[in-house]
């Protein structure tokens, strides 16, 4: 059996309009966009709507979608834990511009590693956790009588930045587009800024939401979570478990993948370095997905697949 004949090597449709690899999709137009591009388009569309609506409607539109710190008093507004991440301040255009740039440069790389469905699931999960963190802190610091509202994608983006720094710590990035630093330095600087801002409690920046999103990103990385595996897949077909897996599956370790060789395929007791290299690449796919492979690793897999097919009787 060739490598690309194996079940774990076949690409699959996520059931959400795009394939679970960066840049793939069915059909043309908006449906073929990546998940990150769709997210950016929605954020841009919501911002335009905020700007174009006249003042009374603009206020109502933002009020309905933003997250109030006392959301527990209006439990029917639980949806705002996610929708607030699509809103931005119309008084400061840099709010949406900087968040959009961060999503464009870092979000697309994380999507390449996670796939579209998992990427969006992670972004909104991080945003929800960030929003909850902010609500809890606001209620504690205000003595149970908070009055603020939260809007902006920064909580989800903080999780993305932490993931990027943990997966690619030595990749060079440019702070403010000027100063080149390793990704891990960028993450530490942003976290330090958020911690100091949260302690001082100054300005109108939700530093605690940033910290909540960053913490979620760390936990996601630490436990190798796969959030979208617990979501329903409506197009899976019969017998494929469309209602999702239990929460335990998020933390469950997956079995290692190995290339099993028959005795007659191995003339000596010593291991074959080429086969060991293939095993290493398969373990990388199991842990991080096929999108994480380099061109050289893809070439090695293709060569190995051809060899295995030639061995078939």
From TrEMBL:
Membrane topology, from the record: Multi-pass membrane protein
Basic and acidic residues: compositionally biased ranges: 274-283
Presence of the UniProt keyword Transmembrane helix in the record: yes
Segments forming domain Peptidase S54 rhomboid: 76-222
Entries under SMART domains matching the protein: DUF1751 (SM01160)
Pfam families the UniProt entry points to: DUF6576, Rhomboid
GO cellular component terms attached to this protein's record: membrane
Chain spans, region Disordered: 258-313
Residue ranges of domain DUF6576 in the record: 277-307
Alphabetical keyword list: Hydrolase, Membrane, Transmembrane, Transmembrane helix
Compartments (UniProt record): Membrane
SUPFAM superfamilies per record: Rhomboid-like (SSF144091)
Domain of life: Bacteria
Bilayer-spanning residue ranges: 39-58, 78-107, 119-137, 149-168, 173-193, 205-223
InterPro entries to which the protein is assigned, alphabetical: DUF6576, Peptidase_S54_rhomboid_dom, Rhomboid-like_sf, Rhomboid_protease_S54
Similarity comment: family membership: Belongs to the peptidase S54 family.
Name of this protein: Rhomboid family protein
């Amino acid at each position: 059996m060739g490598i690309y004949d194996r079940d774990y090597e076949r690409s699959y449709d996520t059931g959400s309009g795009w394939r679970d690899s960066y840049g793939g999709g069915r059909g043309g137009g908006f449906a073929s966009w990546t998940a990150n591009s769709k997210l950016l388009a929605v954020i841009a569309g919501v911002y335009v709507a905020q700007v174009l609506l006249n003042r009374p409607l603009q206020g109502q539109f933002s009020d309905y979608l933003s997250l109030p710190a006392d959301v527990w008093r209006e439990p029917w507004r639980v949806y705002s834990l996610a929708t607030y991440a699509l809103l931005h301040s119309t008084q400061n255009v840099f709010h949406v511009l900087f968040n959009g740039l961060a999503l464009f440069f870092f979000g697309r790389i994380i999507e390449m590693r996670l796939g579209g469905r998992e990427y969006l699931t992670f972004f909104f999960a991080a945003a929800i956790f960030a929003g909850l963190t902010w609500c809890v802190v606001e209620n504690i610091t205000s003595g149970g009588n908070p009055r603020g509202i939260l809007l902006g994608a920064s909580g989800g983006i903080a999780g993305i930045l932490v993931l990027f720094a943990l997966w690619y710590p030595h990749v060079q990035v440019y702070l403010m587009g000027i100063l080149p630093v390793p990704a891990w330095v960028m993450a530490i600087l942003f976290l330090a800024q958020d911690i100091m801002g949260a302690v001082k409690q100054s300005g109108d920046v939700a530093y605690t939401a940033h910290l909540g999103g960053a913490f979620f990103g760390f936990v996601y990385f630490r436990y190798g979570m796969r959030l979208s595996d617990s979501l329903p897949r409506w197009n899976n077909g019969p017998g494929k478990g469309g209602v999702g897996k239990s929460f335990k599956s998020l933390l469950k370790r997956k079995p290692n993948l190995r290339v099993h060789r028959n005795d007659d395929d191995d003339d000596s007791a010593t291991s074959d370095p080429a086969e060991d290299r293939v095993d290493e690449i398969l373990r990388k796919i199991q842990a991080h997905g096929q999108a994480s492979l380099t061109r050289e690793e893809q070439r090695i897999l293709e060569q190995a697949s051809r060899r295995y097919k030639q061995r078939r009787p």
